[in-house]
Amino acid sequence: MYDFKTQIAAFIEANFKNSTPEEANFKVTSAELLKFLFNTFPAGCIDDYELNEIMTKLQYTRHSYIAKDDDDKEFLTSSWCMHSDLITEESN
């Protein structure tokens, strides 16, 4: 059996660093982060509880902040706020 939790933790460590909502260029909910990870790893190889365990062991915290939708309406959201040098403003 593959140890996907260890592989995913190593992938996150290699490609991202913890960030604030203001500085993050990758803000995602747990569901969105799982969907992103399943582009690289087999779908369903970890669940949201295991993702939370991975992220907290890597010392990430969820941030709550005010965001705007497509109609410029503000709403409160909670996301993992990450920064990657691989993501540019043009690719967002």
Determine the mean pLDDT. 92
**Termini Cα gap:** 35 Å
Sheet having the most strands: 4 strands, antiparallel
Q: What percent of residues adopt helix (DSSP H or I)?
A: 25-40%
Number of domains: 1
Descriptive report:
By secondary structure, this protein is α+β, with helices and mostly antiparallel strands. The protein has one domain (4-87). The protein contains three helices and four strands. The protein has helices spanning 4-15, 30-37, 48-57, and strands at 17-18, 26-28, 62-68, 74-83. The chain is globular, with a radius of gyration of 14 Å.
Ordered list of secondary-structure elements with their pairings:
Elements: H1 4-15, E1 17-18, E2 26-28, H2 30-37, H3 48-57, E3 62-68, E4 74-83
Helix pairs in contact: 1-3
What would the keywords be for this entry?
single chain, 92 residues, alpha+beta, 4-stranded antiparallel beta sheet, 3 helices
Outline of the structure:
With 92 residues, the protein is an alpha+beta fold. It has helices at 4-15, 30-37, 48-57, and strands at residues 17-18, 26-28, 62-68, 74-83.
